[in-house]
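[step 3/7] inverse_fold.run input=structure_tokens len=395
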């Protein structure tokens, strides 16, 4: 007879504790309502602009027809690794320092799974890209938030690192710091001074930088993107995450990458074999055969600079206050000048009155009270959508 043992008495649920702790799902109701009303969606980052470059689509069709339909090298096709390496200001070796991932989303998980152990602390600047939290959680680590200082005036310095708070956040439990430059949601880029402070603290505490730079090619006003990989003091302690999703309007292709020194890259590649075993082979080929960073193909910064200006003008007319983004595709706007409602109520009212969906600020802040003062607005939309949004929001 087989002895049946009952499950451990403490196990009350079928899902893991870390899955249970994952944030998210709170906005589903708002999105459903917006869809039902046929509202203009300015909440999510799905690119409505720029247009997907035609040569990329043509190459994808060609790759599929040529039979690139099977598994390929997990670390990514050499053609696309070479292409992506061409875009870096500080060179990287595509053979030993680059891995193609299933979007930046997988890259973030691979970096965290490879670098942190359960119980470690990961520093997160607050406000933050909301998926940072879930990924840190899945890796079993603890986020340690460092509040950015709020902009004092529309034209003064924007969201700033509080040097004392950042210094105090580092300690023996710190394993990594997660950065995002230019940032979703603030639209701000880290400066050389920011990176120097971060590098000094990372060196002192032997901490690694994971720098999400998915908006590297979406920097406006003739400014140059500064990557963690361009900072000499971070040379051996930076991991850079990138993506074609927004710069090339192929968010559905799921093509991202991880850049790191060879010792880390070989570990990332092993973890990546477990998480996905490689990104889509034909779409990598298509990207590899397209002149991705030629001005005729990479039009995003030019197109979105105009969209940013249009959106900034619209939000000013609505009476909101915000910092004009240096990069990315979002504006984080303070609603206190127009309402004393919390952001969810304001978003709901704007949806009902104007049929436009904005994103409430709360998911991007550790302190929900603080987040409640903000909405996030996506401006990577076509001129037609922006015109319609303007009509509806200023009627
Ligand atoms: N990081 C940031 C900061 C983002 O805003 C996004 C997209 N919203 C991602 C990562 C995810 O990018 P991907 O589509 O390449 O997975």
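[step 3/7] decode complete -> sequence:
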């Amino acid at each position: 007879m087989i002895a049946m043992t009952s499950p451990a008495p403490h196990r009350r649920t079928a899902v893991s504790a870390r899955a249970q702790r994952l944030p998210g799902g709170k906005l589903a109701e708002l999105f459903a309502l917006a869809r039902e009303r046929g509202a203009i969606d300015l909440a999510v980052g799905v690119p409505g602009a720029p247009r997907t470059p035609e040569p990329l689509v043509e190459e994808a069709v060609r790759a599929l027809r040529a039979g690139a339909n099977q598994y390929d090298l997990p670390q990514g096709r050499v053609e696309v690794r070479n292409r992506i390496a061409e875009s870096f200001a500080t060179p990287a070796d595509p053979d030993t320092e680059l891995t193609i991932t299933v979007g930046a989303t997988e890259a973030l998980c691979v970096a965290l799974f490879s670098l942190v152990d359960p119980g470690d602390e990961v520093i997160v600047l607050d406000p933050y890209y909301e998926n940072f939290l879930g990924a840190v959680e899945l890796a079993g680590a603890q986020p340690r938030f460092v509040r950015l200082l709020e902009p004092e005036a529309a034209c003064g310095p924007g969201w700033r690192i509080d040097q004392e708070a950042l210094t105090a956040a580092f300690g023996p439990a710190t394993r990594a710091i997660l950065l995002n430059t230019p940032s979703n949601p603030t639209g701000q880029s880290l400066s050389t001074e920011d990176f120097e402070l971060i590098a000094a603290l990372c060196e002192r505490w032997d901490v690694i930088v994971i720098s999400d730079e998915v908006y590297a090619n979406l920097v406006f006003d003739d400014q140059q993107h500064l990557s963690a990989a361009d900072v000499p003091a971070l040379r051996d302690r930076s991991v850079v995450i990138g993506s074609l999703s927004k710069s090339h309007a192929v968010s559905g292709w799921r093509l991202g990458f991880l850049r790191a020194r060879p010792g880390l890259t070989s570990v990332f590649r092993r973890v990546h074999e477990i998480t996905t075993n490689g990104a889509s082979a034909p779409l990598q080929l298509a990207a590899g055969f397209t002149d991705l960073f030629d001005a005729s193909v990479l039009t995003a910064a030019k197109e979105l600079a105009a969209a940013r200006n249009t959106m900034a003008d619209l939000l000013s007319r609505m009476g909101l206050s915000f910092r004009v983004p240096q990069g990315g595709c979002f504006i984080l706007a303070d609603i206190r000048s127009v309402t004393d409602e919390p952001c969810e109520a304001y978003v709901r009212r704007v949806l009902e009155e104007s049929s436009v969906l904005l994103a409430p600020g709360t998911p991007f802040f550790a302190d929900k009270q603080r987040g409640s003062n903000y909405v996030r607005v996506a401006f990577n939309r076509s001129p037609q959508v922006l015109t319609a949004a303007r009509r509806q929001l200023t009627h």
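[step 4/7] annotate
DSSP finds 14 helices and 13 strands in the chain.
The mean pLDDT is 94.
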